[in-house]
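Q: What structure does this chain adopt?
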Amino acid sequence: MEIETILSLRKLTTWPSFDLVKEWEDILAKELNVSIKNEKLLLYNRIINNHPTLFKLFNTRKTALVFEISDYRSSLRNNFENIIPCIIDFYTKDNKILSEIYKQYNRNPIVLISSKEAFEFLKQKKCPLNIAHFPLSISDKYRITPDIRFEKKYDLVIAGRLNPVLTDFVHRYAQSHYDFKYIYRKTEGNKFYYYTSDGENLGNINTREQYINVLRASKMGLYATPGLDGGEKRTNGFNQVTPRLFELICAGCHILARYPKNADTDYFQIDSLCPSIENYTQFEQLVDKYRETECDMQVYSNYIEHHYTSKRVSLLCDILKNV
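A:
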């Protein structure tokens, strides 16, 4: 089986996180030499969604790859023999819901699971679907070299979803180090504004380019897997490695991290990049060190070379050989 097109929601969603998906789609389409088919609003019509046969009349008949943010489908519009879904956020552990999910994907020839932890969980559960691990990546447009350097204006950036433990450590450190300058995001309405710790408004950072530039201007960045320190309820304890790790690496940031040991963190060898911070003393020692040192871009470039989106193409082709 070979991918002939990529189904994309890029014209139907303004969700910021989907910018990542669009970048993956662009690289995969280029490397596979296939087109990107934009899904139409018509296909989200309630009548069509409730009648899969009608949906099939409007949908592509080519073998198509589609990224799906959630494990639970709100409709059956992609449950067809020519559709290969890649589930990005798999957080379900409830047996009843798992049974429903299995039905929602039962016609797909194979289901790609981004999280190694979730993949192994499903294998342990004897999932009846044909599944394969297809790890997340970062677009080749952010490729770095060992000699690349970014101008660092700030000591640290707090970006995206907050980890309360690490955020508390930042505030605690700032109280006793008056020259420590960090930036953080604040949501106002549906816009993301970034501020410095001394009150400067850096404006509405609403594009990927602006966001990456904020990271590049910072010496350090916080990173945590999503199922820690209160996130367990949202993820059911799953702790997959998210693309922010790759973004911080490609921006030349030292990483202040919290993560468990699991199949995902082992797969991505996070402990080779940064330790998991367990207490404030450890945090303070690392911040003191990182404020005075540059990242080893040789180590970073060697590491991230294995996780560019273009590197996933051969893996995808290998997975599909026997489908």
